[in-house]
UniProtKB/TrEMBL annotation:
Domain of life: Bacteria
Flavin reductase like domain residues: 12-158
PANTHER family: FLAVOREDOXIN (PTHR43567:SF1), FLAVOREDOXIN-RELATED-RELATED (PTHR43567)
EC number of this enzyme: 1.5.1.-
Phylogenetic lineage: Bacteria, Pseudomonadati, Pseudomonadota, Betaproteobacteria, Burkholderiales
Residue stretches spanning the membrane: none
Assigned keywords, A-Z: Flavoprotein, Oxidoreductase
Entry keyword Signal: no
Organism, as annotated: Azohydromonas lata
Protein name from the UniProt record: Flavin reductase family protein
Length: 201
């Protein structure tokens, strides 16, 4: 069900602002945390930004490893997203504690989280001032994959109304509000250019 995503399209995997699970590994240790503030920065080469608090163990692993992954969880993983975002991995392996399946990526050491709908492997672009002063981490996406049930032709395939697919609803991405409450991605609407409209229409 996993398919490679061309790197110039990787930004589309998180362009709509989903919560992500940030994974990292170094020196025989691994960790996983949730982050609500992640966004694309560039197309080619694709770059992303994510905010990681100084207190997080994942941040320490990323700084040591020089790489990380963004995993895009879905509605079926809402409890996992909430849980890994509310506890520390310093003393416990979250993958073992919460029975999180994982698999190896194409490029980076960070484990990729099974059951997600997209995965972006990233090489850290060190920016000491941004990291220290603003907790802002930049990465270049070096590999990307998506679940072919939810992603095809370079875009998400969620449908609404009469075309809605209940099986696909479980794969909708999560968007954190506060205190463990999430939206799932909702109805799509098509915009049309105003240049083509008749005056006064």
């Amino acid at each position: 069900m996993k398919q490679d995503v061309p790197l110039p399209q990787a930004y589309r995997l998180i362009n709509h602002g989903p919560t992500v699970l940030v994974s990292a590994a170094h020196g025989g240790r691994r960790n996983l945390m949730a982050a609500a503030w992640a966004m694309p920065l560039d197309f080619n080469p694709p770059k992303i930004a994510v905010v990681l608090d100084k207190s997080t163990y994942t941040r320490k692993l990323i700084e040591a490893a020089g790489s990380f992954a963004l995993n895009v969880p879905c509605r079926a993983q809402v409890d996992l997203a909430y849980t890994v975002g509310t506890c520390s991995g310093e003393e416990v392996d979250k993958f073992e504690a919460f029975n999180v399946g994982s698999f190896a990526g194409h490029v980076v050491e960070a484990p990729l989280v099974a059951g997600c709908v997209a995965w972006l492997e990233c090489r850290l672009l060190p920016q000491p001032a941004l990291q220290s002063e603003h907790d802002l981490f930049l990465g270049e996406v070096v590999a990307a994959q998506a679940d072919s049930r939810a992603w095809a032709g370079g875009r998400w395939q969620y449908r609404d109304g009469a075309e809605a697919d209940p099986a696909l609803d479980a794969l909708r991405t999560l968007h954190h509000i506060a205190a463990g409450r999430f939206f799932t991605c909702g109805e799509q609407v098509q915009g049309h250019s105003l240049f083509n409209q008749e005056p006064g229409a």
